[in-house]
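Tokens for chain A. Residues wanted.
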């Protein structure tokens, strides 16, 4: 593989918002055969715009010549394809389990974050997960081909700040399907609307994992409704099948069946089921409502078709890490 010209299409197929920085198709060396993904944080200012950060990737920094990474992920969860060839983001670092080392074998993702205590927004974190999962699925890689810069750096890099084991496990879940994959089928706009709704309902979370857990838990609970009903039916059948061999009288059997039915058909359980259904319907409706595109601060990237045109003064805003 000389160039990763498939990047924008693969990310868009995952429902992500993708911009293409002018010249990306020929940017970066053709000596490029990726076997892994490396997650980074830009370490730029919290006030830097997407254009500021992209400028750094295009012009380089004191520690890395350009281009610095193939992909950039903004705070609003939008992706920019910066280059299709080899970029300079890990030096000669080894990629565990691949038998390869160096920039020629790794797709780099620089995500906007100061890496000095700035929290990761839910919308950006989930977009990061979905993008990485889409890349791994396309390339036929498992989640074990995902590394944080801090895990492979020999120079003490600390990015990204989130827990990579948790990150990889969520990537695995999205790739495998299941409850967590619920988020993977939503567009950026739908995810934003869903969490706006959650916030308005007063479900406040300290960090992204709380919001993720809610969605995952709701999906599990709704799926569990059918499982509960099937479980009750199976349990009642077992009671009837063993009643005779255990010496239970018909009256005792009937009484036990009544207890089981009462436990699973109680008004409290039904209220919980109804609340879950109502919440799910509300979230679905909220996700389906159209929402305006997110603001991107002072970014000066003009759209022309699917191609983003670089504009404005080049002014490095961060050190690429």
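Reply:
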């Amino acid at each position: 593989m000389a160039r990763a010209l498939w990047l924008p299409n693969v990310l868009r197929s995952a429902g992500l918002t993708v911009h293409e920085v002018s010249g990306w198709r020929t940017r970066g060396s053709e000596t490029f055969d990726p076997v892994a993904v490396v997650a980074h944080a830009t370490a730029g200012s919290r006030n830097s715009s997407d254009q500021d950060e992209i400028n750094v990737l295009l012009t380089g920094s004191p520690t890395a010549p350009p281009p610095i990474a193939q992909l950039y992920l903004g705070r609003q969860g939008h992706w920019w394809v910066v280059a299709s060839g080899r970029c300079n983001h890990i030096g000669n670092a080894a990629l565990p389990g691949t038998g390869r080392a160096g920039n020629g074998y790794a797709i780099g993702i620089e995500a906007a974050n100061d890496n000095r205590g700035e929290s990761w927004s839910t919308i950006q974190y989930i977009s990061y997960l979905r993008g990485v999962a889409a890349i791994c699925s396309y390339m036929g890689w498992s989640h074990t081909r995902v590394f944080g810069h801090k895990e492979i750096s020999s120079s003490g890099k600390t990015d990204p700040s989130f827990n990579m084991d948790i990150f990889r496990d969520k990537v695995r879940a999205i790739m495998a399907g299941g409850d967590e994959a619920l988020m993977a089928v939503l567009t950026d706009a739908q995810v934003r609307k869903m969490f706006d709704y959650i916030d308005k309902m007063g479900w406040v979370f300290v960090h992204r994992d709380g919001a993720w857990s809610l969605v995952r838990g709701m999906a599990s609970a709704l799926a569990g409704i059918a499982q509960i009903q099937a479980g009750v039916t199976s349990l009642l059948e077992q009671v009837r099948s063993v009643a005779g061999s255990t010496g239970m009288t018909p009256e005792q059997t009937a009484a036990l069946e009544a207890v089981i039915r009462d436990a699973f058909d109680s008004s409290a359980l039904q209220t919980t089921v109804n609340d879950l259904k109502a919440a799910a319907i509300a979230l679905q409706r909220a996700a389906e409502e159209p929402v305006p595109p997110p603001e991107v601060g002072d970014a000066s990237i003009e759209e022309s078709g699917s191609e983003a045109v670089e504009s404005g003064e080049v002014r490095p805003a961060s050190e690429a890490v």
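DSSP finds nine helices and ten strands in the chain. Confidence is low (pLDDT under 50) at residues 202-211, 287-321.
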